[in-house]
Design the sequence.
């Protein structure tokens, strides 16, 4: 079995919602985040199996999960649900998981889709994947050596083996 370095390879981000989950995947150089898909939730077991397939198919070495932080910088009930969900996911996949602030990404994703001329159903079908891409791009940008500032957000690595 080959050891996989979580500092190399593709990263997958999840924008967790109660009904839909946005998925984005980076390129292998961890430079560009691309919206991948929107998963309609049915059960955690089905979700986790879907992620496991994506991890295997795309050679994912790190998962970034959007963590909802309030504008006041606090974690609420929604963040607790995300952390619980991630803990369950960590029991089903060996890929390291980190959290990243997802504040206002859905608003930004909706605005970006509107700027592209998309409306209604076109927005609803893609907004979660675009939000996941925004979360992932923010994470990737912050990891670049030139982005390391004292005020930069740091990832919160969890569930690593």
Sequence:
């Amino acid at each position: 079995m080959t050891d996989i370095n979580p500092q190399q390879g593709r990263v997958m981000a999840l924008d967790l919602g109660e009904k839909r989950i946005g998925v984005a995947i980076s390129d292998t150089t961890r430079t560009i985040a691309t919206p991948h898909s929107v998963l309609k939730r049915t059960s955690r077991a089905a979700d986790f199996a879907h992620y496991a397939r994506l991890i295997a198919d795309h050679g994912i070495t790190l998962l970034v999960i959007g963590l909802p932080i309030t504008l006041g910088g606090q974690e609420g009930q929604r963040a607790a649900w995300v952390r619980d969900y991630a803990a369950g996911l960590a029991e089903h996949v060996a890929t390291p998981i980190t959290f990243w602030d997802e504040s206002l990404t859905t608003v930004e994703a909706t605005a970006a889709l509107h700027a592209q001329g998309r409306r209604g159903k076109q927005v609803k079908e893609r907004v979660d994947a675009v939000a996941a891409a925004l979360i992932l791009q923010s994470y990737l940008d912050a990891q670049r050596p030139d982005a390391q500032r004292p005020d930069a957000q740091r990832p919160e690595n969890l569930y690593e083996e």
